Amino acid sequence: MIMKKDVVFKHVTMRYGHFKALEDLSLQLAQGKIYGLIGRNGAGKTTLLSLLASFLEPTEGTIEVNGKTVFENADLMQQVTFVYEKEYKEDTEKVKAHLEAVEAYKPNYDPDYALELIKAFNLPLTKPVNELSKGMMSALNVTIGLVSRSPITIFDEAYSGMDAPTREIFYQKIVEDHALHPRTIILSTHLVSEMDYLFDEVVIVHKGKLILKEPIDVLLEMGAAVTGAVEEVDHFVQNMKKINSQRLGGTKSVMVMETLSEQQRIQARQTGLEIGPVSLQDLFIHLTKEGDQDEQK
Amino acid sequence: MGQSFNDSKPIFLQIKDRIEDQIVNDQLKVNDQIPSTTQLVTFYKINHLTVAKGINLLVDAGVIYKKRGVGMFVAEGAKELLIEQRKKSFVDQFMLPMIQEAQKLGISESELTNLIKQLKGRE
Lengths: 297, 123
Fold this sequence. Notes:
The complex is a heterodimer.
Chain A: E1 7-16, E2 19-29, E3 34-38, H1 45-52, E4 60-65, E5 68-69, H2 74-79, E6 80-84, H3 95-105, H4 111-121, H5 134-147, E7 152-156, H6 164-180, E8 184-189, H7 192-195, E9 201-206, E10 209-215, H8 216-222, E11 223-229, H9 230-237, E12 241-248, E13 251-257, H10 262-270, E14 274-277, H11 280-287, H12 293-296
Parallel strand pairs in A: 3-8, 3-9, 6-7, 7-8
Antiparallel strand pairs in A: 1-2, 1-4, 4-5, 9-10, 11-13, 11-14, 12-13
Chain B: H1 11-24, H2 37-44, H3 48-60, E1 64-67, E2 71-74, H4 78-105, H5 109-122
Helix pairs in contact in B: 1-3
Domain HTH gntR-type (chain B): 9-77
Pfam family, one (chain B): GntR
GO molecular function, one term (chain B): DNA-binding transcription factor activity
């Protein structure tokens, strides 16, 4: 079922000269969820998001929001806010004036919420935008993204200039405001371990292709780390999809992509094996390892 | 920074345990509001799906109740219910492993009783 403000990518390919940034990518995002878009550098994350924000036109395929093609669709563009590491080298207007300009073209802009964020991030209202530090610039960008309350809000690694305590504030604001004003939020990142608790669903792209899209709870149950004596571990995981394996003396730890049944867990415990969870960070690292492991096997 | 969780048990069960602990030790009393999902998410830095899973178990068990649009509250008789449950699992969770370990180490029943008395005397 296509819901309102659903995002649909159909067989999208994006070519820059001979380089394929995205290849035959199909993807559907439901309204009101927080998506984590994860991929290594150069995987195609920014291209994917730029297409959704209508900054680019796909070479092949279509991108639709609410059943309408996004490219050069002014109505839809108002519904999408794209936050990225923007630099304002030429911009001499003050932070306050800059935010007022945003208010003028974002229909859901909430001035009270803006004040709350300005306080939380300590934004200097009277400073010219081009004199802000890198961290403050990120905070301003992120503030614009949050306060616009657009039905589709994209943060493309917009937080990389922030220090850890400031990022923490940003994460908290996302959780709080999304609970009060549900909307589709896409967070692209490689800071997986510190952000994974924010996501409803995870999308992993690798070399221009979609390799995974799952609700986070399903995803985390899909993996398990099996640790114990070498033979016992090998026997237990023999018919499972293995994504990583480590050995320390007589002990072996194997990461598997397998939803273990309660029966299997009991069996593992009885043979002295330890079953641990696999973090999203681990899954990401091993699913996007260099030299496609599937092809090597 | 929230307290960290361990790998021994699914996180949603650990969330449930922590709220139960607060009810058992009177930090949360009957009709007190428990922290909201959003508060738990930002405090513990765990996913809201995980939090909701833990909280739903408490609702299903009748330990907490939902007031629409307001929040979650500790139910009448929650503490007594939890203590009753914990007494039942006390044998499996604590006594059985203790007896098994004692057997492995060759600790006799009277030695065990003495040890318990000694420990209690220390308090």
